[in-house]
Structures are given as C-alpha cells and as structure tokens.
What we know:
Blueprint: H1 3-16, E1 20-25, E2 31-34, E3 37-38, H2 46-51, H3 65-78, H4 82-85, H5 88-91, H6 106-127, H7 136-149, H8 151-157, H9 159-166, H10 170-173, H11 184-204
Antiparallel strand pairs: 1-2, 2-3
Helix pairs in contact: 1-6, 1-7, 6-7, 7-11
Amino acid sequence: MPFEIRNTLINHIASYEEYLDIMYQDSKGKVTVGMGFNLQSGIYSDEKLASMGFVKVDRTTLASLEEIKANINRVMEGVKDQAERESKEKFSAGYFKPFNQVYLPKAAAEKHLPKKIEEAANELRITFSIFDTYPKHAQMALVDMMYTLGRPTFEGLFEKLSELVKERNWKAAAEECRITSHPEFRNEQVKRWFLEAERWDSFRDM
C-alpha cells in the first residue's frame, strides 16, 4: 500500500478508534483490544498474538501466549448472551476491566495499527482482485470499512456495495457505505472519499 494512503488511514483510524489497553467485548460480542483490534477475526494466529506486545499487570513483563489466550477466554465469559450485552453497563468496555490480567501498551497498539490496516487491504484484494487499481480515495474508504467489519461481515452486509465497487460506480457506492456502528461523521468521511474517487475517475476518462 502506498505510503500516502497508509499514513492517511493511520491518522484517520487513530482519530476514531479509542485506544484501550484492556480486552473487552464489542457490540457483537467479539473480544477487542487496542484500536479496535478484533482478536476473534480469524487473522490472529498464536504467533501474531504472541508478538503483539501484551504485558502483565506490572506493565513491563511480556505476557506469554498462554496468559494472553487465558485473558481472551475470561473476557469471552464475561458476557455470554445478547440480552446481557445490550445492558448499557455491560456494553461499556470498563465492565471488562476486572477480567483482564494482560494489557496492550499504547506504543504496541500504535506499532500494530499499520499492520492491521495492511491486513484489511489484503482482505480487500481477495474480494476485489483489482483493488490496487482503484483511485486512492476509494481504497481508503474500503479499507476503513474492512478494518471495522472484517471480510465475512463486509461481504455479507455490503453485497450491493461490492457490486458497485466492481463496476467502479463510486457515486452510487457513496450512498451504500454507511456502517451503523460508526459515528455519522466517520460515515460521512467515507462517503466523501467515494465521491472523490468518482471525480478522479471522471477526470481520468476525459
């Protein structure tokens, strides 16, 4: 991914994803940490978990893989059903603080963020074989969405958007990109990126 696109996305995502050093369940019950890193997305192998930089309670000693996985299991058990998850108290990340015995320092989260962005781009290359030929603003919009959703959810919820992307119909894609869990100003930024991609393609075709 070009440096300019990656840096724009790092700043964009860091401004919206609240950093948390503890693991918690997101609104879908997925164990999450750092800047929206979904540890149950399927991309976190044992090797990757062990290399992320989790530390113990003293905040200096590196946690072992076994300790990290035990922490994930404790957080998973913290809320087991949707009714509990819909409780405002248990929906908050702070509810899960007592379940945590390992933590992800901010420096480790910031180091991992570019890797997570590149992983989202790689997932998009599977869905869209010519992803790298798309205008940079379309790439940024799609990476932001994939970063939040992961490929199975993205493909399941945004089938129409995917068809529009394959047609390079960025103007129509701008009307189909809203993620309900995102704040509206983040959705508006993604929409603006799709519209900018439309202008770029129109200029290219002149």
